[in-house]
Amino acid sequence: MARFNPIQCLACILLWSLNVLGDITEEHRCHKVQREFIHKRIGSSTLVPNNPIHDPSVSICFNGARDSGRKSCCTSQSEQKYVIASEKYLKTSIRTKNAYLKKLLLDHISQYEERIANLVQMSENSTVRILTDIYNIPREEHQGIVQEFYNEIRQYLKHKKHMTLYSAVATFFDKIFPAVYKNTLNDGTVTVLSQEHSDCLRHKRQEISPSPFGIQPSTISYKLSKALNVAKSYVEVLSLIVEAVNTTDHLTVNGKCKDQMTQLQFCSHCESYVEAKPCRGFCLNVMRGCLAQLSTLTPEWEGLIRRGVRLEGGMSQTNDIEKILNGVDRSIDAAVMHALESEDLYDNNMKALCNFPVTVTTKAANTTTSHQAHGHHHQAPLNRRSIGGDLYDQVLEVMKELLTSLRMFDTMSDVICDQELYYNQNMESDQCWNGTTIGRYTPMVEGLSSYVRAVNVDMDPKITTLKEKLSQMKINLLARYSEQEELMFSDSENSMVQYGSGDSIHKGHHAFTTDDEDLDGSGSGFYSIGGNDGSGDGRPDKPHEPVITRHPPNPDDEFTETKPSGGDGNTGAASQITVSMAAMLISVVVATIFV
Questions:
Q1: pLDDT value of position 361
Q2: Residue 520, class by beta-carbon neighbours within 10 Å (0-12 exposed, 13-18 middle, 19+ buried)?
Q3: Contact at 8 Å (CB) between 486 and 162?
Q4: Which of 303-307, 327-331, 348-352, 551-555 has the lowest mean pLDDT?
Q5: How far apart are CA 62 and CA 72, in angstroms?
Q6: Given this model, what pLDDT does residue 42 score?
Q7: Does residue 415 lie within any of the structural domains?
Q8: Which residues neighbour 28 within 8 Å (Cβ) at sequence distance 6 or greater?
Q9: What per-residue confidence (pLDDT) applies to 452?
Q10: Is the peptide bond before 210 cis (omega within 30 degrees of 0)?
């Protein structure tokens, strides 16, 4: 009988244990890959083998059909899941980089439009109160007219087609004039205004000389049109910028980019190098190639943002929409007061036009009362807090953020690859995934310009369409501002104006004093409407007859009448040119601004 040897028994047990552990290790060589597959929600772990195998269908991470003896933790099924995950990673990276700017702009557009809507409503309410409480016009006689006028302002802001407010302002004063005459101007002898006389006052108001409401209709028309047009253009530019960001968020990733992203992000898993970070140079080459089409947007993107900045400049002083909307009610107040104070100048002409009996009336008591009321009205300025603060300050903050994004499409690949958590930042490192194994990335890292100039850049049709939209916005802005300036001087071909540095442009009975730098579009000058104290044809609120005088900017200036400075428009070396030539010159200057 053999003698039991405990040493030999212990050796056998140890040998058996080593064999078992070896088998276990062999059985779980791909367990890290399986775990990562589940952790990153790439797919089911059953798609990853327990042990390295050879799958001839693998084609992205290596050529399985050619490398017949190569085993890995990848199969054709897991490889396709890696492709989907790589595309998702790229799109998520782009959206993450765009998220802050997009949210900032969307929130600002919403707040900006809401603030303007509140300002319009406040101005409407104030106008109703002035006409009711200050001038004793029954609410039912004017509230509908006021509401219709302010609805025109709202529609102007929403309307996509460019339009002016000259006709809306003129219509408002036409319709309100009968109520003003009946309740404010007449001496009490007219208790009921016949429909015939009411219609005549409405239809003939612009023919009365001098104009009952003075220059205020022209003041309101000109300033509202300029300020609201800039505000509307500003929202359009910001909306197009948001559209550009949205388009890049949904970029179509082509097949070549998907394969390269898979090699960058996940092919290291085939060799069980789950913890290895891709080399920075490898990342830069792949990302710059995939995002090259975004970089082609940069010229149009920069141009759009810079035009947005120019619009911001145009919002200050004369085109400050917050200031101007806050002053519409005061200008309507001033217009009615002008009608009251100057009635003796146009009364006979008005009554002759509408066949009123001509009588001698005294307005002293009524005028005094209205003067007191008018003065009291201006003693209660609007509280800034009631309108939500300074709108222009918010615009400035948004412009600052936009300026920091001028090169965002050029730098996006670098920003993504700068993430130390995901990519090895040492360009000389030999401990990163280089696309084949753990080692140094030796290929030359291409500059961005090489990819942008490449003729074989596969462009997403959405990017091409976006480039066209960005370019079209520039053309639209040029046309819009040229048209607006032309409108100011449109008249018969026989009209003559005088133009020169520091000279006056005479048109009819009005003067437009200008220096060459007045038309620089920077918003640095303050333009106000001036007149000739009631002389002329009595129709200063016609759409084509605003009267403008430039004064030094003053932040405290209100939206009220400013008399033009005196002087002979024929002095100096002014040369005579036609109205159409003046319009053409202004169009060229404005076009130069937006190039």
A1: 45
A2: middle
A3: no
A4: 551-555
A5: 10
A6: 93
A7: yes
A8: 50
A9: 67
A10: yes
Edge-to-edge strand ranges of the sheet holding 526-529: 504-507, 510-513, 548-551, 526-529
- Quote the pTM value: 0.70
In a domain, 143, yes or no: yes
More confident of the two residues 476 and 382: 476
Domain boundary among 478, 513, 538: 478
pLDDT given at position 365: 39
What one-character DSSP code corresponds to residue 219? H
Residues 471 and 493 grouped into a single domain: no
Predicted local distance difference test score (pLDDT) of residue 107: 93
Name the one residue in this structure whose structure tokens are 């400035």: 396
Query: How many CB atoms are closer than 10 A to CB 534?
Result: 17
Torsion of CA 488, 489, 491, 494, to 10 degrees: 170
Same domain, 162 and 301: no
Q: Which of 491, 516, 508 lies closest to 583, judged by CA?
A: 491
Are residues 327 and 230 part of one domain?
yes
Per DSSP, the residues of 263-326 read HHHTGGGGGT--SPPBBHHHHHHHHHHHTHHHHTTHHHHHHHHHHHHHHHHHHSGGG-HHHHHH
pLDDT (tens digit, 9 = 90+) per residue, 408-441? Answer: 999 999 999 999 999 999 999 999 999 999 999 9
Confidence of residue 372 (pLDDT cuts 50, 70, 90): very low
pLDDT band at 571 (very low <50, low <70, confident <90, very high): very low
Which tokens is 383 given?
A: 């509280």
What is the dihedral sign for C-alpha 288, 294, 297, 302?
negative
> To the nearest whole percent, how much of the chain has pLDDT over 70?
66
The contacts found for 486-491 with CB under 8 angstroms, 24 or more apart, are 486/583, 486/586, 486/587, 487/164, 487/166, 487/543, 487/544, 488/222, 488/544, 488/546, 488/548, 488/583, 488/586, 489/544, 489/579, 489/582, 489/583, 489/586, 490/544, 490/579, 490/583, 491/544, 491/579
| pLDDT at position 309 | 81
Both structure tokens of 76: 């054709």
Q: Which DSSP string corresponds to 87-103?
A: HHHHHHHHHHHHHHHHH
Query: Where among 459, 478, 497 does a domain terminate?
Result: 478
Q: Contact, 182 vs 190, CB < 8 A?
A: yes
Nearest partner of 178 among 152, 212, 149, 153, judged by Cα: 212
Question: What are 404-417's pLDDT values in tens digits?
Answer: 999 999 999 999 99
- Give the pLDDT of residue 68: 85
- What value, to the nearest 5°, has the Cα angle with vertex 477 and ends 475 and 480? 110
- Is the domain of 379 the same as that of 468? no
DSSP letter for 433, please.
B
DSSP line for 504-543: EEEETTEEEE--GGGGSSSS-SEEEE---TT-SSS-TTST
Angle, alpha carbons 166-170-172 (nearest 5°): 120
Q: What value does the mean pLDDT of the chain take?
A: 75
What is d(CA 253, CA 255) in angstroms, rounded to the nearest whole number? 7
* Boundaries of domain holding 12: 8-50
